[in-house]
Amino acid sequence: MEEITKVVVDAMGGDNAPGEIIRGAMDAIAKRSDIHVILVGQEEVIRRELAGYTYNEEQVEVVNATEVIETAEPPVMAIRKKKDSSIVVGMRLVREKKADAFVSAGSSGAILAGGQLLVGRIKGVERPPLAPLIPTEKGFSLLIDCGANVDARPSHLVQFAKMGSIYMEHVMGVKNPSVRIVNIGAEEEKGNALVKETMPLLKECSDINFAGSIEAREIPHGQADVVVCEAFVGNVILKLYEGVGAVLFSKIKSGMMSSLRSKIGALLVKPALKDTLKTFDASEYGGAPLLGLNGLVVKTHGSSKAKEVCNSILQCSTFRRQRINEKIRACIQGEVADSE
Amino acid sequence: MEEITKVVVDAMGGDNAPGEIIRGAMDAIAKRSDIHVILVGQEEVIRRELAGYTYNEEQVEVVNATEVIETAEPPVMAIRKKKDSSIVVGMRLVREKKADAFVSAGSSGAILAGGQLLVGRIKGVERPPLAPLIPTEKGFSLLIDCGANVDARPSHLVQFAKMGSIYMEHVMGVKNPSVRIVNIGAEEEKGNALVKETMPLLKECSDINFAGSIEAREIPHGQADVVVCEAFVGNVILKLYEGVGAVLFSKIKSGMMSSLRSKIGALLVKPALKDTLKTFDASEYGGAPLLGLNGLVVKTHGSSKAKEVCNSILQCSTFRRQRINEKIRACIQGEVADSE
């Protein structure tokens, strides 16, 4: 018998909710009969949207949640007060084992807080990292952690390295992924206190393919499959990637539009350029998992369209089929046992 | 009478030494009769190179230094052992007040270490920050600190903000420059311990135009004239800027070369694109000053060509004429006096 993956989808989260979110969910169930989606949000709105699709009704469930958490709300407070929000209701379904995973394009802060408070950590996991995939020259890398875990300790970074490695190997299919820690120079003596303390611990890990440090310049070149750093640095990397890309594209566009000659050239260049730059688009790979939880929480971009939502749902299915949480549990608890 | 600025130029440092370095020095003295350069390095090599130029001999001095510090050498050790290297000899000239400034494209580590150990800090300055200019959509911003000062304290960041503000206003001519601190979200409660402790201190500074925090995404858009952060984060920002830019350009190039149609388009687009992207090139503005020293030390890119070297030398002249160190001294010591 086919094993079903049940994915709760936050129908109210993100700039393009509910339209693109529901379209993404419909695309996912059309692709895979072993995926069931539970759409959480204002039932009336969801039903109205669903009326436009033809789909296998067995694969879709709607759960009503009347409240919506806004991006600007203080996350922990929002999670505690808005008990009938799509994020809280959806995460509860995962905690109660009524679903395997939760996907949302809503408030990052609320999703991170909810993951810890509502879904809960796997025993032994000190902090759950948020691990987006970032595009590189060669394909993509996992950047771990970009979450709310600032001021991390060396033991946290070691767990991030292990969980990231498991995810890249078994969900993304990268064999024996290389793991590197972000540093400010290749020499051993360089780095801040955190990196210097973490480095020898990572070297001791026999269960990951640790390859030393990586300078930020090398990240876009794809010189590591798993890029380990604490959340403040990870957030800077993720956001700067977006910012530099956006500014360069706008510069290139205005350069191409600056003369008649270049405008004609732009028309000729456009299709080829579009194809190439698509390979530098992270949404191809789906959202960012929050790892180390009793279940799976995936955060997609606030501006997610159907494709990213669909890919994120498919990702949840791979996550379950590959028994990622069992692997994380064994790895982390093995580690805990070792140090006793 | 004209006031002369004496700039020591490390003729041996960088990938393009001595050719491009000496060319840059020649360009600078041709532009400005109030600049004298002291070329430090292997005298024979320098003289041979100089033979190819016609220049005002009163503006040029050659000081022999037989040793060269390599990039891979441990910096502090190199500074201590290679007493006859161009970096050590050159910095000594600044310390002994025989020159106003030192410009080098050599080993970053040795320049940072030498600045502290040989040139020395202005009284009251806790740590001298390295402050490169980075290109933005609007022009450029000063990123302070990108130096070796990892694990900084809040008081250091406050001094960085003040020194950076003085430099941007009086050397780069940006009126009332806005100062922001790098953070991972706009909300007050976000950030790591360092940022949370520094924020209220910056708000209290009446001598800078502090405008709150900045997310990394906004840096390339030029949303702050002075971008304050500790050195680890600054280094990540600087290097990632280069990395993302390099990968995007190579993607664009290969996209344009992928079909005949796009190749023709590329030919038409090229001149306009080149002009636009020039505005996104940091070397236009010269090197990165190491601020807060008894003199001025400027680090240019390892790959510097004549233009960057020339611009860095001109920068030194503005630095002296604008009495930047007197301004920094007054600002920092005023601050010290206040807190007594």
Run of helices and strands of chain A: EHEHEHHEHEEHEHEEHHEEHH
Categorize the overall geometry of chain A: globular
Overall average pLDDT of chain A: 92
- Class per helix and strand makeup of chain A: alpha/beta
Q: What percent of the residues of chain A sit in helical stretches (DSSP H or I)?
A: 40-55%
- Biggest sheet features of chain A: 6 strands, mixed
Tell me how many strands of chain A there are: 11
Q: Stretches of chain A where pLDDT falls below 50 for ≥5 residues? A: none
Strand order of the largest sheet of chain A: 3-2-1-4-11-10
Largest interface: A-B, 63 and 65 residues
Chain oligomer state: homodimer
- Whole-angstrom Rg of chain A: 21 Å
CA-CA gap between termini of chain A: 41 Å
The proportion of strand residues of chain A reads 15-25%
- Can you count the helices of chain A? 11
